[in-house]
Amino acid sequence: MNEVLFESDLDKINLAKAPLAVFGYPINHSLSPIMQNKALEFLGLNESSIYYKFEVKPNTLKEVLPSFVAKNFRCINLTIPFKEEVLPLLDEIDDFAKMCGACNTLKIEDGKILGYNTDGFGLENAIKVKFGKTFWNACVLIYGAGGAAKAAAFQAGISGAKKIFIANRTIEKAQELAKNLRENGFNASSFEPNWAGKVDIIINATSIGLKDTDSSICDFSIFSKEAVYFDMVYAKQRKLNSIIEAENNGLKCSAGLDMLAWQGAKALQICFDFNEEVLFKVGKIMTKTLEDCIQ
Ligand code: NDP
169 CA distance to ligand 1 centroid (A)? Predict the structure, then answer.
């Protein structure tokens, strides 16, 4: 079940199964239905639930969402460009999504839409599983100041990072995000290269790397070899140039596939309320499914 559907397809799908979905524009590339349906199968829920992907046009969420609520969709994930557009449409929003100003997971209960953000959890858990590191007491450098960077920065903040540096092409946005973090009580500032030696965790939360011609996000020789590099971008059958450069400088690295899996596992946990042990198994299954897809 990985074909792209549209709102006009709603009458054609099997609503005997409690449906789940991801909305995006574009959405064709999304691997979410493959990993989510695999996890539903593992949970023994594939007879009662099914996960679809829908192409929804930007700025139409307000008109489109009620049709899905009326059809008893249980959970909807959101990717570009809906994470902010959805905010005024929510009945309730959890504290972390509010802090980030972005929401990637909707749970629909008794006709009410509850909003969550699982990107921060997805990132931190991917870092934990890949490197055995957490944000606690770490000095974290984030490249980017868009939605994904905000989730990364606030997750680092709530998980006890001792310092959060922001670097971004548009410097004003880096300064604004750092200010926002400080206003929430976190120790944050724009990045200055003379701090590079102190950085423990480097994160790419920009779009650099999506194109195979994109060069490395930075010169990794300025960092300690003990630092780790997590790139939120992932690519089919090619290594990102930033990862090549970071590895050449002795850093341990990971691309963004694990984050995609762990944010998806957390979203499914929100939807079905399973425990942490099951969450761990679901995350592992999703990671393996995605790895198989991109090989
Ligand atoms: P946004 O559009 O909100 O932000 C994009 C960011 O990338 C901005 O900081 C922008 O800088 C920067 N940027 C874009 N192009 C360039 C460039 N050519 N040179 C330098 N900086 C650039 O996107 P998101 O925050 O939603 O997503 C960012 C990335 O994270 C995407 O690649 C996305 O696929 C990935 N992602 C991965 C996830 C995963 O699960 N693995 C989850 C969520 C996101 P400026 O402010 O100057 O425009």
Answer: 11
Each residue's pLDDT tens digit, 249-285:
999 999 999 999 999 999 999 999 999 999 999 999 9
CA distances in angstroms from 278 to 39, 40, 256, 267, 272, listed in the order given: 10, 12, 22, 13, 11
The reply to whether the predicted model has a pTM over 0.85 is yes
Q: What are the E-state strand segments in 3-146?
A: 4-5, 18-24, 49-55, 75-78, 92-93, 105-109, 112-116, 139-143
* Separation of alpha carbons 162 and 249, rounded Å: 25
Distance 144 CA to ligand 1 centre (A): 6
Q: Which of 169, 241, 263, 293 to mutate to test the pocket of ligand 1 (most atoms within 8 A of CB)?
A: 169
